[in-house]
Specification:
about 650 residues, mainly beta, seven-stranded mixed sheet, six-stranded mixed sheet, 49 strands, about 35% strand, flat
């Protein structure tokens, strides 16, 4: 079909009656009963989409590829309010329903007149029923919310909704419809606001300042207290979040005392000041800088404790926070061009996201005594910053806080506190991020930090080509320290995963309270491990490693010369490879509390030939007794063997005598 189908109809709208309330419904409250409605078909399109449908054959919901048909209409109410309408449907082949979603292959080249008329009828019916089932498939939109380029014709014709060109004069009301209008160079929308009268919350009609349509604000903008609209004097109480964003020639905004909601401004590089009229209970300005209430606290009239916005082109080079400021809004100083130095007040506890982002001339920042945290990208791309000194009060710094600060050459941390600032140059870390040896133990710094902000160390194996590796043949006991000082910096030791091959005679390993991860399986001759009682993750008994509650037996030292071992009562689980490769154990006695034996828990225990299982055992892992000397095994009644997902024929006794 090469020509557009022309359909148009005018009728009086009668909304579908709601029998519960006795009232008639409106179409999204835009069309009311008694309105004269003219519907004109604009165009249609079809596209491949996927729709989630229930597949009865398989009893599942699945995405099925279909052809989506979209029909677009212009809806004019009472000859002056214009909207765009949309009706959509989807089409299947018989073979695509209930068969797992066969791809629809259509030779359907266009949408025919019969389909258009059916869609027209359904759209009108949908309006009449009061938009009762509005969703993605049906809709009616304001003209400002719907794209001018509506659809494609049938097929291939581009359909563009007609847009009337309007020229207005300053001071005249220029009506857009639906309560949106221009007056004196400012665009407004009527909306429902709320006020408190005698402690009672009351809804009122008020005005919100909107972004300009097809243009942006420039020069100085003065927001009035009120505007007369349709013989009503409406207060201007709100400014849209994007109203003054990305206005390249905007220089100043004056805020009236009636405004109760004014956002920060971004992307407007020439704004020099924001001034607030005397008597505004929620905002104030000093020297063109905007202050207001704390965002996350209760709004208290006259309490201007948050710095909301420092204009991008403010002429000041040095800024000292007023003492009354307790918090800063996100991005408050973003892209300030002239700012060179800042001194925070002692009441400010954190610098939020993007606060000084792209302040390319900022050279120095002086923290207040109350500062505790610096959040994400707070100083991103502050290329003039050359040094940072962190005070002891600072407890948390985002790893991206100083991203793009390419000229930083000096960073000083408070003793015992380290922040993982990955984006800083390597020479900003005078102690180094590399591993180091101390008293024969090899340490590697972690990237992670604990809740207190301490830098963490892991005890690891020496690399094969290490120059400072020395053999300590006479050492039989190694005590891992809780903290290590290196180049004047204090680390916390949190991880131990070394084989300690530099201590060939090692018999005992003492672990501190700070250890959170440990692996002793690689220590060949170790006879016992002892854990500090203050450790919150691990414990030890009779030289064997347990979790803190002693419900899981984690590891038995490979050099522990014990022929019979009675597992303590209360142990519920034997961890994977807990005894793997232990050459001395001949007999194991389980308590009734044990329910699980992990995979390879006793594998390669070559001397093990007697096992006494408890009554509560439920699961025996794969290869848990592989390559042992077991000849007889009595299972409790509820025990079962646990196989891996793809069984390869290996049993708990693979390679054993049984």
């Amino acid at each position: 079909m090469n020509a557009m189908i022309q359909l148009s109809e005018t009728y009086t709208y009668e909304g579908h009656k709601n029998w519960e309330t006795g009232k008639r419904r409106t179409a999204q409250k835009k069309i009311k009963t008694g309105d004269t409605v003219k519907i004109t078909f604009l165009g249609a399109s079809e596209e491949h989409i996927r729709v989630n449908r229930f597949n009865g054959s398989w009893d599942v919901y699945e995405d099925i590829p279909v052809i989506g048909e979209n029909y677009y209409f212009e809806v004019v109410v009472n000859d002056k309010h214009s909207y765009y309408g949309k009706y959509a449907d989807d089409r299947y082949t018989d073979s695509s329903i209930g068969t797992g979603g066969v791809v629809y292959k259509s030779n359907h080249e266009s949408i025919g007149e019969e389909q258009v008329r059916l869609a027209f009828s359904r759209f009108k019916e949908w309006l009449t029923n009061g938009a009762d089932k509005n969703n993605y498939w049906h809709g009616i939109y304001k003209k400002t919310e719907f794209p001018e380029k509506i659809a494609y014709g049938m097929p291939g014709e581009e359909v563009v909704a007609p847009v009337a060109e309007t020229v207005w004069k300053v001071g005249e009301i220029i009506e857009e419809g639906d309560g949106v209008f221009m007056f004196d160079g400012i665009r407004y929308e009527v909306f429902k606001d709320y006020v408190f009268i005698d402690d009672n919350r009351k809804a009122i009609s008020a005005l919100k300042v909107l972004p300009l349509k097809g243009d942006v604000y420039a020069g100085k903008v003065t927001i009035p207290e009120s505007v007369s609209y349709h013989r009503r004097k409406l207060s201007v109480t709100k400014v849209d979040y994007n109203a003054f964003n990305n206005c390249p020639e905007l220089t100043e905004v004056e805020v009236s005392k009636t405004v109760t909601s004014f956002p920060s401004i971004s992307g407007s590089p020439k704004v020099e000041r924001v001034t607030v009229a005397e008597g505004n209970p929620y905002y104030r300005s000093l020297d063109g800088i905007l202050y207001g209430q704390e965002r996350f606290g209760g709004r208290v009239k006259g309490a201007y404790t948050e710095l909301l916005y420092y204009p991008a082109a403010h002429p000041g080079e040095h800024f000292v926070f007023p003492e009354f400021v307790e918090s800063i809004s996100d991005h408050a100083f973003s892209a300030c061009q002239m700012l060179k130095s800042v001194v925070l007040s002692d009441k400010v506890t954190h610098i939020p996201n993007g606060t000084f982002r792209n302040c390319i001339n900022l050279e120095s920042i002086t923290w207040g005594t109350g500062l505790r945290a610096i959040w994400d990208k707070a100083f991103e791309n502050c290329t003039a910053l050359k040094s940072i000194v962190f005070t002891d009060s600072i407890e948390d710094v985002s790893s991206n806080a100083f991203r793009g600060c390419t000229n930083l050459s000096s960073v000083t941390f408070a003793k015992g506190k380290y922040f993982d600032l990955e984006t800083l140059p390597g020479d900003c870390f005078p102690w180094g991020k590399n591993a180091f040896a101390l008293d024969g133990i090899y340490y590697a710094p972690h990237k992670e930090i604990n809740r207190k902000g301490d830098a963490l160390l892991a005890v690891i194996d020496f690399p094969e080509d290490a120059q400072d590796r020395t053999a300590f043949t006479d050492v039989t006991t190694v005590r891992i320290p809780a903290r290590v000082e290196h180049y004047g910096f204090i680390y916390e030791v949190s991880d131990c995963r070394s084989s300690f091959s530099q201590f060939p005679s090692l018999k005992r390993l003492d672990l501190p309270a700070t250890i959170k991860k440990v692996d002793i399986a690689k220590i060949e001759n170790l006879q016992e491990v002892v854990v500090d009682k203050a450790n919150t993750e691990f414990s030890s008994e009779d030289g064997i490693l347990f979790n803190k509650e002693k419900t899981v037996l984690l590891s038995c030292p490979r050099g522990r010369d014990v022929k019979k071992y009675v597992i303590p009562s209360g142990v519920e689980k034997i961890a994977e490879e807990a005894f793997c490769g232990q050459p001395y154990i001949e007999e194991i006695v389980f308590p009734d509390s044990t329910t699980v034996i992990g995979k390879r828990a006793f594998a390669s225990c070559s001397s093990l030939h007697q096992v006494h299982l408890g009554k509560s055992l439920k699961k025996i892992g794969i290869e848990s007794f592989a390559y042992t000397a077991i000849e007889r095994f009595v299972l409790p009644p509820d025990a079962r063997f646990v196989q891996q997902n793809t069984w390869d024929g290996k049993t708990p006794f693979y390679g054993s005598s049984d």
